[in-house]
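Researcher: Sequence recovery benchmark, item below. Answer with residues only.
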């Protein structure tokens, strides 16, 4: 029997979301699921297996190791590597057939060299050219795209099979930010055109993350890259309510529930303190439940004060500081609805027993659902249900 602090992964919800995404793009638009960071904490292997089963076209990871993990699990789908690596890792890219994003001449030249020592034949290995149109992270400048394409395609073993860019503010509804996104899109179009002007096929062109997938249907191009939406949460201002109001019929369900159990109930008198720093003091006699979950599990310190947990359908506040491995909850005096060993839900999908979603926690912790989910650490076993 494993530890009672667990992350339940609702497989049916995951499959539902994948189908929703797949059904919301045009017939000729491919779907890439971002399964980086262990599928935003939701189990990359399970997500990738369901992706394969449901006709998804691509997976995206951030590190070589994440790609290798999927290959070792037998995943056959093309895998995009969204972040850069160092030349020492290049061999693993070829060995595991992972498609890297490239953009700088130096990087491309080193990759060409590595490809020529790896392949003894005429193998053409796919790379995607990243273009920085305003994200300010990775990518070549739009005006350099043609040149980069030439470098790639004139090599013996590399071939340009895709082009991409990434939006900085597509999850915002302000007019200024929507215009910025449109401008990024236009620059991306120019980069693609300059590659075509050099006589090259740009391959699969992609730019839409979850937000642009939901809100900019005209920007789906050849492929979308869906991350957070796969896991049941909406990107910032592109909320479920907004979509409903604008007649965009799309909904997804959260997949992960974080739960634990009460391992002790202790009686406290008025004036007693709870946890480090003595930040919380009993204003009256009460009972305090101890939970075996803390910030090392991903229950971030900044969630207290503010966060309630759900026990048998009712909410109770975490009091005092969240410790590394434990935290305390005020359940009140003579509470017949709460008993030792009862289940405690931190967050999860509707009807699983939790009243909070990861989005609620994000609001309390002044962060985003992405960070709440990816913070759930390795120590918390994922249990597929
Ligand atoms: C993570 C990532 C995505 C997915 O973003 P979501 O907002 O989660 O949909 C798409 N593209 C790139 C380049 C990414 O790094």
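Model:
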């Amino acid at each position: 029997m494993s530890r009672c602090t667990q992350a339940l992964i609702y497989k049916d919800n995951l499959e539902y979301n994948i189908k929703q995404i797949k059904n919301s793009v045009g017939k000729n638009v491919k779907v890439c699921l971002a399964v980086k960071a262990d599928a935003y904490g939701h189990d990359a292997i399970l997500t990738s297996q369901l992706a394969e089963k449901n006709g998804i076209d691509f997976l995206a990871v951030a590190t070589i190791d994440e790609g290798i993990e999927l290959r070792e699990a037998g995943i056959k789908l093309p895998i995009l590597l969204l972040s850069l690596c160092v030349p020492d890792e290049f061999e693993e890219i070829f060995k595991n057939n992972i498609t890297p994003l490239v953009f700088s001449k130096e990087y491309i030249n080193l990759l060409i060299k590595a490809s020529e020592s790896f392949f003894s034949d005429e193998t053409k290995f796919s790379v995607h050219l990243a273009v920085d149109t305003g994200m300010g992270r990775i990518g070549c400048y739009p005006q350099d795209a043609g040149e980069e394409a030439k470098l790639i395609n004139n090599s013996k073993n590399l071939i340009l099979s895709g082009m991409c860019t990434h939006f900085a503010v597509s999850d915002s509804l302000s007019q200024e930010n929507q215009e910025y996104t449109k401008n990024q899109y236009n620059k991306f179009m120019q980069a693609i055109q300059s590659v075509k002007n050099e006589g090259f096929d740009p391959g699969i062109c992609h730019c839409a993350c979850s937000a642009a997938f939901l809100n900019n249907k005209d920007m789906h191009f050849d492929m979308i890259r869906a991350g957070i939406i796969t896991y049941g949460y909406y990107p910032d201002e592109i909320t479920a309510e907004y979509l409903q109001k604008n007649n965009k019929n799309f909904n997804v369900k959260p997949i992960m529930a974080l739960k634990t159990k009460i391992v002790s109930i202790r009686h406290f008198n008025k004036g007693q303190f709870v946890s480090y720093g003595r930040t919380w003091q009993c204003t009256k006699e009460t009972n305090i439940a101890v939970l075996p979950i803390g910030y090392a599990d991903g229950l971030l310190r900044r969630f207290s004060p503010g966060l309630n947990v759900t026990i048998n359908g009712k909410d109770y506040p975490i009091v005092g500081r969240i410790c590394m491995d434990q935290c305390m909850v005020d359940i009140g005096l003579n509470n017949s609805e709460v008993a030792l060993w009862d289940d405690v839900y931190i967050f999860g999908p509707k009807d699983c027993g939790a009243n909070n979603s990861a989005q609620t926690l994000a609001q309390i912790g002044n962060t985003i659902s992405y960070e709440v989910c990816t913070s759930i650490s390795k120590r918390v076993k994922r249990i597929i249900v």
